Amino acid sequence: MDLLTKVRSQIEKLGPRRSTGNLLHKFQICWDTINFEVQVESNLSRNVDRTEIPQALQQMLDILVKEQSMVDRGLHTTNGCAEMFLNNDMLGQLVKLSQADVPLGFRGEVIQTISSLISLLEGKSLFHKSVNGAAVALMRSALASRDHKYEDAMLELESNISTKIHELPALLHLFFTKRPVTSNVSTEAVGGLVGARDDQDSGLDEGSYDFPLFDHLLRYVHIEGRRGDVARTSCLFLLQLQQDELQDCIARSDFAITVIAGIGGLFSQLPPQLPDLNPGGRQGYALVTFTRDVESLCGLLRFVQDVLAKCPSPDTCEAILREFRVTFLEHVVQPQLMTASDFDGTTVAVLYYICKMLDVVWEERFSSIFVRFLLQGDDVSDDQDATAIDDVELHVRDVLVSKLNSLSEEVVTQTLRFFHSLLTKHRVQVLALLLETMSEPKFAELSSNFTVDAHQHLAVVRRYFALMNTAHAAVDHGTTLEAYLEDAETALLSSRMTSRASSPTKDKTKGESITIENAELLEQLDRLGRDATLQKFIGKLSTFFSHSMEINLALTGVLSKVAASPHPLLNLYLFSSDILLGPQHPSLYVIITRLLAEVSTKRAQLGEDVFDNRLEMTRAALYEGDWVEGVGELDLEGEFVKNVVVLEEFVKELVAVLVTRGEVSAEEVAFV
């Protein structure tokens, strides 16, 4: 007799067969089958897949769904199967029957069944003790066990519960309860430790809460992969709830520590040197794995910011920000940056990782802490930051700025890309920290009152148009002025300059006022011209043709972002066509004019036809990504020509910034 025949004969002995057309009868048969299978002695050596348990559980779910559908359509008057299922606590019995996981895999089948049931049922069905009690029992068991065999199924179950709570917050009290004050309560009995960090050995205090759902999710909230994604999504649903006791419980938990520690762990496991990022090149470190690890780090950063944006608890948010600054930035990022070498690839790698993180930083408080950590100097403005920074003799800012003069071309390029990333997303804050002069009250006051005459502005635009023509800028390849205007308009949308009209005054008073303002203006421009950090960027532009094209691409990108700032005095300094402050403080116009003179000299040396032909070939190769044979050779003349193309593009970017900032009309541009 085969096993199936034996099982059926045993079931028939349990009672007389009833009509199989009756849903209740079918439901009872499924339940009897499960109970019988659990009692079979050979189960100790069998897998659940070799029994009828999975099929019986699925049939019970199908019957419950079918019965509800018949009731909804008026074909059935009562939910007999559902009443039997709930009133007899079949879910609770399944949890107990599967506790020993015999036959092997039975526990997993029960977890999946309860998860599917909760997903299928309306949220209010969770109010029934048979449903929520079985789920809580599974979560307590998972917390007490070190066996993670069914963790995916448990996380799926908890995800479904969190979704229902998010949709119906009144369900929260079924899974989040206050613990009774007692002197002899074991951790295993009450589940996790959320809200109980301050409990003494003698018992649990009045502020202790029992929240096994969150406790179990917290184990996975910081890890990579699907498990981490499910846990984070579920936690975010719970963190958004407005209940005061819940928010107090989460604030007292290890949530902030766990999540930020996860960020630190992901950052620390990234390779000390970058792998070959070219898919066609050799890959000492699997590029796929590397890309996944970087994305995992960025994903956890996005999650933390989502929590800051959606969690109503100030205490939880403050804990996250504090842990991010102290635990991650100071104790993970800073040591790696301070000890990195320019000559073994470690500096390039750390800067690359910081840039990747900056690309996904958007939450205001989070980004402010990150930017201040990177650029804060000695002039700390509040006590919290003083605690974090004053003990460091050499600031992170000093190290970053010093890398602009590194002997490693790769380090210089990556440092410029780092500053470009900062300026792209946080320009106003970055400039105020990066250029010390701009943080001075007097500078801010003069900037707010400084106005630019429309005719003067058009004169500046005209001069830069002339520079663009002198540079022999291309008019094809999709790099026309109109294309740059679109980019510049996007960049300047939130920081357009507006002129402030002067109130009429008497001539004498007006004349005296202008004299005083001009003196103050020249003083502040002189201070700006002596700003050490700004001069590092300006100085590198002065030696433009001594750099590689990669450095100059990054450098002009940084200067374009600086030039697009909303600060009128900085604009006056950068765009002035005169050497107002002497040759030691040249403007962009003066430097570009000198560089174009070098281009003219080189053209004369090579011959205009030869130079212009090679320039056109280089443009085509760079713009279209189709490198012409012979153009890519690493010779000085080839690098010079490539840099000429970069200079052309830089001039067009500056023209676009000027036109867009001044809101010059199409007719005026045509006239110019």
From TrEMBL:
InterPro entries: FHIP, FHIP_C. It comes from the Eukaryota. Residues 532-623 form the FHF complex subunit HOOK-interacting protein C-terminal domain. Coiled coil: none annotated. PANTHER family: FHIP FAMILY PROTEIN CG3558 (PTHR21705:SF11), RAI16 PROTEIN-RELATED (PTHR21705). Belongs to the FHIP family. This is FHF complex subunit HOOK-interacting protein C-terminal domain-containing protein. It comes from Spizellomyces punctatus (strain DAOM BR117). The lineage of its organism: Eukaryota, Fungi, Fungi incertae sedis, Chytridiomycota, Chytridiomycota incertae sedis.
